[in-house]
Amino acid sequence: MEALGLIIQVFVGLSILNVWLLRAGRSTNWRGGSAQNMREEFAVYGLPGWSMPVVGSLKVLFALLLIGGTMIPGIAGPGALGLGILMLGAVIMHVKVSDPLIKSAPAFSLLALCAVIAYGSLGQMQELGTTAAAVSH
């Protein structure tokens, strides 16, 4: 089961990196409204121009935490929680602009996988908290 968790972490992390680093300027079937790229998609949602680089930077950071979490215990959980919150926001944005449900399927799927990763990482995060508390005393 641990191997499956690691595979899910890498899959989610690479999926986010693909979207934000390789496909941000391209059209996909999943873009909100009739947007042809990421910048247009954020405009469709009515978000300010500065929000795209902020959200993108956070998503890339959280994706790297997921991937790094395969080697460094304890960092996948925070990455999954942060990314999960952003994916919930993505689903809400699709609903806000009345997109067909299929357009929010990737965001919803990644949200669900982030929940699985976060749940599976609870033990590691608790161990880190206990270790940090012991070190500070």
Would you kindly provide a written description of the structure presented here, covering whatever features stand out?
This protein is mainly α. The protein has a domain at about 50-125. It is about 70% helix and about 0% strand. The chain contains 6 helices and no strands. It has helices at about 1-20, 40-45, 50-70, 75-95, 105-120, 120-135. It is elongated and about 50 Å long.
What sort of overall outline do the alpha carbons produce when their principal axes are compared?
A: elongated
Percentage beta strand: under 5%
- Spell out the helices and strands N to C: HHHHHH
Helicity level:
over 70%
Mean pLDDT: 93
Number of strands: 0
Structural class label: mainly alpha
Low-confidence stretches: none
Distance between the termini: 35 Å
Largest sheet, in brief, is: none
Number of helical runs?
6
How large, in whole angstroms, is the Cα Rg?
Answer: 16 Å
In short:
With 137 residues, the chain is mostly helical.
Sum up the structure in keywords.
about 140 residues, elongated, mainly alpha
List the helices and strands and how they pair.
Blueprint lengths: L1 H21 L15 H7 L6 H18 L7 H21 L8 H16 L1 H15 L1
Helix pairs in contact: 1-3, 1-5, 3-4, 4-5
